[in-house]
Amino acid sequence: MQLVSITLEQCLNIRHTVLWPHLARDASRVEGDDEARHFGVLDNGEIVSCLSVFMHDERRCQIRKFATLQTYQQQGYGGFLLQNVLEKLVQAGVEFVQLDARISAAAFYARFGFMAQGEPFYKKEVQYIHMSRAL
What we know:
This protein is α+β, with helices and mostly antiparallel strands. It is 23% helix and 41% strand.
């Protein structure tokens, strides 16, 4: 496994396949994508997991659109990606990170110190919860 910086287009391929396969590929784009930093995990020359970091200011950011190809899920790729990106954020002086987790993934984020904030809500008929943590 190797952490790499990737392009938005590479990230969109995985986002669409994993998160919203029933929608058009462009439905996986979000506002701010062009300014965000996109990271992936490379395995045998293939990007198998990705996430995007959107900076709010020098000290606060949001992780969005975290996705791992189905055949690579539950094998440590997502954990490797999240842990390495969190370490990069600490090195960059970021102090606070937030994200919107699918309810089905909340326990995964909790393992990395994220805590649920507020009540669950829906996006495109999928239930989410706000989560955050200090770095």
